[in-house]
Specification:
It comes from Hypoxylon rubiginosum. This is Soluble quino protein glucose dehydrogenase. By secondary structure, the protein is mainly beta. The protein has a single domain (about 30-425), classed as TolB, C-terminal domain (Neuraminidase), CATH 2.120.10.30. The chain has 3 helices and 34 strands. It has helices spanning about 190-195, 305-310, 315-325; strands at about 5, 30-35, 40-45, 50-55, 60-65, 70-80, 80-90, 100, 110, 115-125, 130, 135, 145-150, 160-165, 180-185, 200, 205-210, 215-220, 225-230, 235-240, 240, 250-255, 270, 275, 295, 330, 335-340, 350-355, 365-375, 375, 385-390, 405-410, 415-420, 425-430. Strands 1, 2, 27, 28, 29, 30 and 31 form a 7-stranded antiparallel beta sheet that branches. The two termini are about 15 Å apart.
Length: about 425
């Protein structure tokens, strides 16, 4: 077991409260960090910081949810530490709430609201943006609000946009035409050249659907493989048995190489709203054949009979296992993974677990590492120990109100991992990854 150190409010995490002199900044909440890693708070007072991305000059752009728009943070080195030289609002748009990505040349900044994706010309030297252009619209205003953006390094003309469900069990998403619970790909060149915005539901190409709420979307830079992390359903029941505290599992799903025209994963359905992955199996009624990580159905309130044309639990479960794409890794229920980023050599993925809102006791609120080899997770899908947790709250009973809640992740060119915590309004840098 990884040895753990507790770093608390004694100021053992050093960062930059005052950007000019890199004076120490104490974390808002006590932290538990695995041996071999360091964590520093380098900026606080942010307004629910969510997604983050580096520009081509190494400056950090952060999407702040709750009215502040996009912030530009200029970093500087001080000895062996990184700290903040300046922090300023770049785009004052209260509708922007999560998604942020750069085109591969760094000249275009994409940001998203619940309904729209905007493109801004970006001047990296001046640190300014030009006039916004609406490139994608028609996304539904309701339910899950984030619209995650990713411009893969290995597919420079592609912008991926993830759209979650409108409700906990969004039965209408059995129809792909709803444009919800889906990840779509769009040509950046076509978006920028078009004189009118592209409608999300009818435009683009489907990378994967049947994905309840894939807030985290990331790329393995060594293979070009696209991965998403799934926030699964709340309050589920099967045959009158309440399963919600230990089920269903959160998921890590694989979508293949987006630049590969023959990608066999392209367009697959991952099961929602009829099928879910199992975490705890012993309390699932009629659980023959259900294993950790396998898909099952028959959940109250879902359209499984219409989707599968089968009625018994065993028949529905078989449909979910054989005719829907299952996850590659599963996580504990309600831990809410919100981002996934890979090391440059592809040896590990890091996932931020934002934490539960309705589980007893609370769970999540940590940063995890998943080992990879040859483009795939090392652990089997049935493993309950696939994640090494490197940054945690020492006492989850005080969560979510009095602990850090990780959201966005980004690696810099030196291999340091930057992370936002929306609950505490902080920006962290983590080394040893």
């Amino acid at each position: 077991m990884v040895a753990l150190m507790i770093l608390g409010a004694l100021g053992l995490l050093v960062s930059a409260a005052k950007a000019q002199d890199c004076s120490p900044l104490q974390p808002a909440a006590q932290l538990k960090i695995a041996e071999g890693y360091t964590a520093q708070v380098i900026l606080n007072g942010l307004t629910y910081p969510r997604g983050l991305v580096f520009d081509t000059a190494g400056n950090l752009l952060i999407s702040e949810q709750g009215g502040s728009g996009i912030r530009r943070v200029v970093l500087t080195e001080s000895g062996e530490s990184v700290c903040v030289a300046s922090s300023n609002q770049l785009i004052p748009d209260a509708s922007l709430n999560h998604g942020i990505a750069f085109s591969q040349d760094g000249a275009t900044l994409f940001v998203s609201s619940m309904e729209t994706v905007f493109a801004y010309p970006y001047d990296v030297e001046a640190g300014t943006v030009g006039t916004a252009k609406t490139v994608i619209n028609g996304m539904r205003r309701g339910g899950h609000s984030t619209r995650t953006l990713l411009a893969p390094v290995t597919a420079p003309d592609i912008l991926l946009v993830s759209h979650g469900s409108e409700s906990n069990i969004d039965n209408a998403t059995t129809d792909i035409a709803t444009g919800r619970s889906i990840i779509k790909s769009f040509s950046i060149a076509e978006l920028l050249a078009s004189t009118t915005p592209t409608n999300y539901a009818s435009g683009g190409e489907t990378l994967g659907w049947g994905l309840r709420n894939s807030v985290g979307v990331g790329e393995d830079p060594t293979t070009g493989g696209i991965w998403s992390v799934e926030n699964s359903a709340d309050q589920i029941q099967r045959s009158g048995v309440d399963l919600h505290n230990e089920g269903p599992a959160e998921e890590m799903n694989y979508h293949g190489v987006v630049s590969d025209a023959a990608n066999p994963m392209k367009g697959l359905n991952y099961g929602y709203p009829a099928c879910f992955a199992a975490w705890q199996t012993s309390n699932i009624p009629s659980n023959a054949g259900i294993t950790i990580g396998s898909q099952f159905g028959g959940v109250a309130g879902t359209p499984y009979e219409q989707v599968t044309s089968r009625t018994s639990a065993a028949e529905v479960d078989e449909f979910c296992r054989t005719e829907r794409q299952g996850p590659r890794t599963v996580f504990p229920s309600h831990t809410a993974p919100l981002d996934i980023k890979f090391k440059e050599d592809g040896s590990a993925a890091y996932v931020s677990f934002h934490g539960s809102w309705n589980r007893s006791p609370p769970d999540g609120y940590r940063l995890g590492k998943i080992d990879f080899a040859d483009g795939q997770p090392v652990a089997n899908v049935s493993s309950t120990t696939a994640v090494e947790y490197i940054l945690e709250n020492p006492d989850n009973t005080v969560c979510p109100g009095a602990c850090f809640r990780p959201v966005g992740l980004a690696f810099d060119t030196q291999g340091r991992l930057f992370m936002t915590s929306d609950q505490t309004g902080e920006l962290f840098v983590i080394t040893g990854v």
